Amino acid sequence: MSSANHYDVIIIGSGAGGGTLAYRLAPSFKRILILERGDFVPREKANWDPKLVNLEGKYQTKEHWYDSEGEPLHPHTNYYVGGNTKFYGAALFRLREKDFGVLHHDGGVSPAWPIGYDELEPYYTEAERLFEVHGERGEDPTEPPASSAFPFPAVSHEPRIQQLSDDLSGIGLKPFHTPLGVRLDERNPETSKCIRCNTCDGFPCLVHAKSDAHVMCVEPALRYPNVSLLRNALVKKLETSASGREVTGVIVERNGQVDRYSADVVVVSCGAINSAALLLRSANDRHPRGLANSSDVVGRHYMGHTNSVLMAISKCPNPTIFQKSLSLNDFYFGTEDWPYPMGHISFVGKLDAETLRAGAPAIAPGWTLDAMAKHSLDFWLTSEDLPDPNNRVTLNRDGEIVLSYQPNNQRAHERLIHKLQHALNHVQCEEHGKCHTGLFARSLFLGQKIPLAGVAHQNGTIRFGNDPAISALDANCKAHDVDNLYVVDGSFFPSSAAVNPALTIIANALRVGDHLLNRLCATENASSQLEHAGASEFV
Questions:
Q1: How far apart (Å, rounded) are the C-alpha atoms in residues 162 and 109?
Q2: What is the pTM of this model?
Q3: Is residue 450 within 8 Å of residue 73, measured between CB atoms?
Q4: Residue 64: which region, alpha, beta or left (left: phi > 0; alpha: psi -120 to 50)?
Q5: Which tens digit of pLDDT belongs to each residue from 199-212?
Q6: How far from 38 is each of 69, 146, 183, 231, CA to CA, in Å?
Q7: Over the stretch 76-123, which tens digit does the pLDDT of each residue have?
Q8: Which of 305, 508, 527, 537 could be 453's S-S partner, Cβ–Cβ 3.0 to 4.6 Å?
Q9: CA distance 409 to 82
Q10: d(CA 457, CA 189)
Q11: Which phi and psi (to 5°) does residue 309 adopt?
C-alpha cells in the first residue's frame, strides 16, 4: 500500500461522534482522514419543504433493514456529512448525575457506567460551548452540577408556550427552557443566523443556523491542511493483522471502485446500528464472531428509548412557530406515588397539516387536519429502555442488517403519559375553562415497524466497561481485543438514560480525543527516542 493511503487516524463517520473527534484532533497536525458514506446535504429549497421531507422522505436512506421475522424495515436515518445531526432537533441535554450509576426501574435495572459524571462534566461544558447551547441553569429540577453557565441565554418562549409554562408552574410543576443548539441571537435578530423557523426539528437547516456536526466540527476541522474528507465512501469491512490485535486495512467502496486505506488508529463512528454491523461484517479467523467481539456483546443491548409523539388539541389556538423551547423533568426519577423513573417531556417542532398526513391520529369530531395543526401542542415523551442482550443487531446471510427489538420498561412510559394527561387536565384558560380535549398519539413515520426511537436515539451495541468479558470497549472506548480500534458514537452507552444522547456523544468524543492526543504524542515521542538512540550508535 502506498504511503498516500496511510494516515495517523482514520475516522469512519462524520456525525456527533466522528465529526467532533475530527475537530478535537485537527490542531495536532496528525494526518487525519474522515470517511463519510454520504455527501453534503444539498442546499436547496426542498430543505424546508414539509411534504418532501416528512411525507416523501426525500433525504432518508432508501436502503432496507430487516426485523427478526425477516420482514423489511425502512429505517428513518440519513447518510450525509454531519450524520443525523443534520436533521436532529438540537436538544442538547447532559445525562443526569444519577444516570451514571445503578438505577432501579419498574422493568429492571439500568447498569452503572465505568466513568462517573464528574469525569465527563468538563467535556459537557466544552461541548455546550462548541455547539453553542442556549439554556438557563437552575430551572431543571434534575439538572446535574455544572462548572459554568450555559454559553448562551435560553431560547425564549413564544406567547402560547409561555402561557403553558406559566400554567404548569401554577399547578406546582417546574417547566424549564430546553437546552438547544441553535445559532440564535435574539438581541440582534437582524444579524442572527437562526430565524426561528418552523422547519428545524427533522429538517436540514438551509442557512446553516443549526449547531450540527457538519457546521460546528467538520468544516472547522477541514481548514487544517492535515485533515481530509472522503465523501460517498462506504466502509465495507476492517482487516486485521495475523495476530488480530490491530486493524491494518479499511476497505472502502466508492463510485464503483474498492480501495484500501490504513491508519495507526481507526475510529468507528457510523451510528450504533451501522457500527455494530461493520464490526460483525469484519469477522475473520482471529475474530470469528466479529471484530472486537470475544465477549459476544457486539450488536447486543441495543437501546433507542421508548418515545411517543402526542398531540394535545387545545381550544386555544397555538400560532407558535418555534415550539421546542419548553421541557418537564418533574417525573424523571419518579414521584411519591410511583418510586421508579418515568422519563422526560418536551416538544417536537410545530406540526402542520402537511406533516400530519404522514401519520395522523384519528381525527377528533369536528376537527380537520388543518384545524388540529393550528390548535395542537405537540409533545415528545422519552422513557429509558433497558439493555437486553436479545435486543440486538445481527446480519443475515446476505450481510444485511437485522434489527431485533422487544420494548421493555413500558409501564414507566404509560405512567409518564398519564402524568402529562393529568397535568393538562388541570390547566385552565380564561376563555374556555378546561383547555385541552385530550392526547392523541401520532406515528411520525407511517409504516415503520421498529420503535420510533429505534434509529433516532440509537445506542448501546458496543458497550464500554472495565470487564472484557461483558463489554467490547474499555473506559477510553478502545476495543479490548484490538489495540488501535476505537468507537465514539452512541454505541458505547451501557444504559440509555431518558434524555437525548447527542450531547453525551459529543462530550465523550472530546474526552476520547484527549486520550488519543496523548497516545499519538506518546507514540511520536517514543519514535523520536528510538531514532535518537539509533543515531547515537553511529556517533
A1: 37
A2: 0.94
A3: yes
A4: beta
A5: 999 999 999 999 99
A6: 29, 36, 25, 6
A7: 899 999 999 999 999 999 999 999 999 999 999 999 999 999 999 999
A8: 305
A9: 32
A10: 32
A11: -105, 120
